[in-house]
């Protein structure tokens, strides 16, 4: 696709230390768009419901950013432990993140922050469920443009072929557009959560439904993924992400029935 959106020629006095061009990369661009959209949603909802200050929202997103980067890199180690133990510098590049690692690290970070700020935990988690969908949707569009998280070889009507040498996907190979499958799945979850939001039965419902919906969708899409470096728990049959999806689904299902209108919820 287009890993580089565009380049801007720089004045001569910048070229010595910045190069001749300033390059805007697709992945980073869509991540920024997603982050801005996510912050905007949290700001609107939290101010409306809890009068949360913009400074606290900024602090929350900074905390989540750090947790997401650390978690994404930690789970990346699990994919090829021996390689990253021998080449720890490879973890410092901008390439290579595991979404589940980021998600599972940001959840406790959110809980600690909400508790410290004396914010209602479950209502805030519902807000963050929709926020995560917004950010993740744009992130998957960025993945599609960059070629990461690509699919297995396929010659169907929706197949995509990457030809730009800067792409992370195999070149000149017809593949499943798994990034677009993921983006469509996340958008569907987002629309569903926005609908349920108006009729939800208890606080925390949106967050738990998000976890379950995503776990199911991710497990299905995994069967079409072609970036085999992510590794398997059971070779060929059960990938790391599918195994984590199973654990996430079971945990979310447990809390879904534990936290309900007939029982006292966490606040």
UniProtKB/TrEMBL annotation:
<keyword id="KW-0808">Transferase</keyword>
<feature type="transmembrane region" description="Helical">
    <location>
        <begin position="207"/>
        <end position="224"/>
    </location>
</feature>
<dbReference type="InterPro" id="IPR001640">
    <property type="entry name" value="Lgt"/>
</dbReference>
<feature type="transmembrane region" description="Helical">
    <location>
        <begin position="121"/>
        <end position="138"/>
    </location>
</feature>
<comment type="similarity">
    <text>Belongs to the Lgt family.</text>
</comment>
<feature type="transmembrane region" description="Helical">
    <location>
        <begin position="24"/>
        <end position="44"/>
    </location>
</feature>
<feature type="transmembrane region" description="Helical">
    <location>
        <begin position="178"/>
        <end position="195"/>
    </location>
</feature>
<keyword id="KW-1003">Cell membrane</keyword>
<dbReference type="GO" id="GO:0042158">
    <property type="term" value="P:lipoprotein biosynthetic process"/>
</dbReference>
<protein>
    <submittedName>
        <fullName>Prolipoprotein diacylglyceryl transferase</fullName>
    </submittedName>
</protein>
<feature type="transmembrane region" description="Helical">
    <location>
        <begin position="56"/>
        <end position="77"/>
    </location>
</feature>
<keyword id="KW-0472">Membrane</keyword>
<keyword id="KW-0812">Transmembrane</keyword>
<feature type="transmembrane region" description="Helical">
    <location>
        <begin position="236"/>
        <end position="257"/>
    </location>
</feature>
<keyword id="KW-1133">Transmembrane helix</keyword>
<feature type="transmembrane region" description="Helical">
    <location>
        <begin position="97"/>
        <end position="114"/>
    </location>
</feature>
<dbReference type="Pfam" id="PF01790">
    <property type="entry name" value="LGT"/>
</dbReference>
<dbReference type="GO" id="GO:0005886">
    <property type="term" value="C:plasma membrane"/>
</dbReference>
<dbReference type="GO" id="GO:0008961">
    <property type="term" value="F:phosphatidylglycerol-prolipoprotein diacylglyceryl transferase activity"/>
</dbReference>
């Amino acid at each position: 696709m287009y890993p580089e959106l565009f380049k801007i020629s720089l004045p001569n006095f910048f070229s010595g230390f910045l190069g001749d061009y300033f390059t805007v990369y697709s992945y980073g661009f869509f991540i920024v768009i997603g982050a801005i959209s996510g912050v905007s949603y949290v700001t609107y909802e939290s101010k409306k419901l809890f009068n949360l200050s913009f400074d606290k929202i900024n602090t929350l997103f900074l905390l989540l950013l750090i947790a997401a980067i650390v978690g994404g890199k930690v789970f990346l180690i699990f994919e090829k432990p021996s390689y990253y133990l021998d080449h720890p510098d490879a973890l410092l590049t901008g390439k290579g993140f595991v979404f589940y690692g980021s998600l599972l690290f940001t959840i406790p970070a959110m809980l600690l922050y909400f508790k410290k700020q004396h914010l209602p935990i479950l209502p805030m988690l519902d807000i963050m469920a929709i926020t995560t969908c917004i950010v993740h949707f744009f992130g998957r569009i960025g993945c599609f443009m960059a070629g990461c998280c690509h699919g297995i070889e396929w010659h169907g009507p929706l197949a995509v072929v990457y030809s730009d040498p800067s792409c992370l996907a195999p070149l000149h190979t017809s593949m499943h557009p798994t990034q677009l499958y993921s983006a469509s799945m996340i958008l569907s979850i987002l629309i569903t959560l926005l609908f349920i939001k108006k009729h939800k039965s208890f606080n925390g419902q949106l967050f738990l439904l998000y976890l379950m919906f995503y776990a199911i969708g991710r497990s299905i899409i995994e069967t079409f993924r072609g970036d085999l470096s992510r590794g398997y728990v059971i070779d060929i049959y059960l990938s790391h992400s599918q195994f984590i999806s199973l654990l996430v689904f079971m945990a979310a299902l447990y809390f879904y029935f534990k936290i309900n209108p007939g029982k006292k919820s966490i606040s």
